[in-house]
Amino acid sequence: MSIFSRNKKSTLASTAMLLVFGLASTAQADPISIVVTDKAAVIHRDGTTRIITSEEVSKVKAGTTGPSRRAWGVLVSQGVSAASHLEISGKNGPISIATEGGKAHGVQAGAKGSNANGQDKSEISLADNIKVVTTGSHSVGLHAIDGGTINSSADIETSGMNGFGIFAESYSKITQDGGNIVTTGYYGHALIANNDIANAEAGKVTAIGTVIETGGDWAHGAFADNGGAIFLDGAKITTEGSRAFGILAAKNSTVSGQAAVFTINDKSHAVQAGANGSTGDGSDKSVVNLNAGSTVSTAGSDAFALHAIDGGTINSSADIKTSGKNGFGIFAESASTINQTGGSVTTDGGYGHGLIANDDRKTTGGKVVATDVKVQTNKDWSYGAFADNGGHIKLNGGSVTTGGDRSFGLLAGKKSMIISDADVSTKGSKAHGIQAGLNGSTPHGLDQSVITLKNAAKVTTTGNDAFGLHAIDGGKIDGTVNVTTSGINGFGVFAETFSTINLSNSVIETSGAKGYGIIANNDVSGTAGVIFVTDTVIKTTGKAASGVFVKDGGTVSLIGGTVAASGLDAAALEINGSGTLNIEGTVLKSAQGPTIFVTFSSAEEIANVTFGAGTVAVDNNGMLVNVARYEGGSDANMNITLKAGSEASGDIVDTDQKGSGQTHVNVEENAKFNGKISGIQDLKTESGTQMSFAEGTSIGGNIVATGSTYSFHSTGALIAGNVELYSGSSTGGGTTDTPITVSGNVLVDQTSFMGGNWDIGGDLTAQGTLRPGNSIGTVTVGGDVTFGADSVYEVEVAGNGASDRIDATGKASLQGGRLDVFALDNKVSYQDGQTYTILTAANGIEGTFSEAISKSIFLTTSLDHQVNKVDLKIGLVADPIDDVVFEKVAKSNNEISTARALDSLAQEGSALELYNSILFLTDEAEARDAFNQLSGDVHDSVNTGLIDTANLTADAINNRLRSAFDGVGSQNVPVLNFAQSPNGRAPKPFDAVKPASLDYGVWASGFGSWVNHDGNSKAGGLKTITGGFLSGVDVGLNSGWRLGVVGGYSQTDLNGKGRNASADSDNWHLGIYGGNQWGPIGLRAGLVHTWHSIDSSRSVSYSGFSDSLGADYHARTLQAFGELGYRIDTTVAAFEPFANFSHVRLHTDGFTERGGAAALTVDGNNTNTTFTTLGMHASAPLPLDGANASLKGTLGWRRSYGDITPESTHLFAGSNPFTVEGVAIARDAALVEAGFDMALTDSAKFGLSYVGQFGSGAKQNGFNATLNMKF
């Protein structure tokens, strides 16, 4: 039976009765039938047709049987004016729609007319327990065309070839909500959406929660073609046939949504965007979008999880897994792009790459962008990310991990590119972390792949022979990275033939044996690898794992950073054969190996090492460069350049020379070297170079020094060639027994200086300065000696007849050069004069020295030119009248006195040592400075300081007495007042008393001052700081007199300016005082005794001499003082003119300093000084918002008499005594005091005042702050 409904709305509905209607088929082709059995019904009601089972039926079938073609189970179509709508529901029992013939579709909405333009708006709804089955070829389960719509939740099965489960063509759409779709035929796609009409709107398929399975070869789960669109929401797709894709979008189509995709068979890609067209020009703009929550898996070999080709694009957040051989996780080919955001990519099969991008059609390379993706491969030869044939890969964050042997983390080959800041880790043998370039059979540097590393991503390898970074055959790696390798031969960074690696601000660490930090070589005939590294830390810890290794012409350049190789036999830098190392500003360390280790095995090899500015190579096993020559390498050459500002330490050794091979050393401006040089050929140094040679130095060629400083070891050195000194160069070293031996000639230009002990086989030509020895020395010359007209021969002489000396086998030519004489031996007396032979020449002496000049200002010289020698005579320059030597340059009294004492020193022991230290001085000003330092004038200046601050105790007592009598300008100090208690009872304080009525008073006062005495031509200056306190008790008598006793402590710090001397004095005070007031007339007086404990120290230092000295001694001061004043009161202020008298007597005990030859013995001494002062005290009330305050001040003029310049007698051990003066006390000084008092409460008073004295060359400043409390 068949139904064909046209030009009406048709709905099939079920009731309790059975109706069958329709149009009979008139031909075998294109039959359309519905078969309703088992008590089901087909009803037409209200313009709507429905098919639905009743509660009693068991099934309803709609379908075709037999071999008919193009037979639809259900077909709904419309005319030009009205839509057709069919609803089929198996709500109460299953409905089966089945077709058996070829091209016999189960359900179709719409029919293609001759002018199909999407106007057929027919709709079919399949719901509740419906199953659609087709068995014929080219038969579709659900088919929508020309605007038709199908909404379905039916289960669908197709088994014929090209038997599609769901097929939406032009203008049509199908929505499948749930249900299962199973296809088993060849090319039996489960979902397909396409556009069968040019320029039409493509078909659309939506699958929601649908379970999809395909079993035939080339049978795709979801296939969008010719602009078709498929949306997946929770769909599950499984394909079992060969080349059966889970999802395929081709020819500008789109597949989007969230799905779980699994393909089982070989070459069955899970997801593909784009199809392999005949041109492959990138014109296929198909797109697949996989949302988060999607999963993509493949099990077959050569099966890709995500595959984009010929312009296709995939945007994915899925988790991806492949398990078959050659199972790629993500694969973007020509002109295509895959963007993976989040999720993971895992491959478990051999050769299973995680990410791969290439250009299979030689157009534009495929592109993969992975953001925060975790990539992991687990089998051998499986790459984490592989860009090939112009492919591009970009990794933004995330990680790449490989677990198999020979499995690279990142690999770029054949002009491809990778940009990454992902962390990379490999675990297998020969599994490199990152490699740019492929190992071609005939590499010529044509690969030109580039890998760029960002943000210091981590690269870790653990397998043997596994490199962190590897560039080969023209590959290039750039960026910032942290590399860690731990396997044997696990190189950190490795650049091979034609390749380049550029790194900055990176960290490279290796721990395996022979795990070089950086290596550049040439593995085939071509241009060797090149590595540039900036500000990078390179650290190796394995045995024989050098920090940097170059081989067969490789080049490594380091700028900044550190290279540290700590393993046994590991060098900081190593060269095998030819190679170049350029090091600038880098710190090189090799705890158990040389800084540089070089091995040669063939004649044509050349090794070049350059240390640039800022390079420091001082931390090694004692060897800077070790050159080892194996069979065939005896003719190879080594070039070492220490450039400006570099610093290197350790031996340079090349002792295996058996052929013409040589090591040459070139040292540029301001470089430093310290170590032994052995076996090198030539040495050339430039301006500012400092060369310090260790024991065993042997140079096989010439030395050319320009502006350089050479310090040879005391055991000398061997130089097989010539020595030339230019532009201010200087030398020193060797001894008379082990001189610096030169086989050739020595030239010293006009600006250079040759010191040290030498044995010269050829000629010596001196245009500059010659000074044999490091003290007394000898230069032996096998040829001739020439002193130019501008030359200087500096001769050191000793008192025992020894002197510097030059002995020539040939002749000596003297062209008028100068002779400078330096005295040397401070333990030998020169007072009786000496004669020295300073030059001998076996073949005679021609010419003379122009003059002999003694560098000592106290020695005189003369020359005796003979046939074969020149003698020097030396003696003292003494005053012809007084026969003194030192006094003639002295000026001040102290200098003269000290110089005379030095002249008298005994000529033996420490006294002679001190004498000669002055005798050898070369400058008068320095001699006078030595006299002043040796004089010990600070001891006398200390007396000045003690006397000048004695007034502090007298002033405090005077202030107390004026306060007791309510004097003008006085400062009230804390006083405790007590009255006598009758009957032996304890005394009680009065509530309020006036000062005049007090019987007893207890008071305390603090004081401080800063005194600065300028130095003069006699003595150095003095700075004195004093602080202390006094307290006393006094009693008022009925006669008006007040008598008291006082005691206290203070400390004084005294610093001798210009003398490097100081002293501390602890002072204890005890005294008595008294005073009275007769109306306006006041009289105040006292006597104070002070005991001083003094600790002094000083140092003496001048050319050739130094001594540290100290002394502890005691002193006593007795001071008597008095003051008479007359009070004048006015309406605004009170005044008191006064006269003050004070006498100070200071006694110092004698003492002897601790120290060496400059120690002094100082006699005890008394110093008596008197002071008189005339001045005015004044005070006035200060209105301050009701507070009780007053201003106060004092002006005065002080004059000093007596011993105002302290002096004492001093003595050196072995000298006559001499008198030395200290800094003077000011003869006249102005006194100033200004301050205020303010009552805080009835029983508390605060006072602040400044006190100063200003005299010629002396200034004293003090501040007093007091808080007075009454109890």
Automatic annotation (TrEMBL):
Residues 995-1271 form the Autotransporter domain. PROSITE patterns: AUTOTRANSPORTER (PS51208). Keywords: Signal. SMART domains: Autotransporter. GO terms for cellular component: outer membrane. Residues 1-29 form the signal peptide. This is Autotransporter domain-containing protein. The lineage of its organism: Bacteria, Pseudomonadati, Pseudomonadota, Alphaproteobacteria, Hyphomicrobiales.
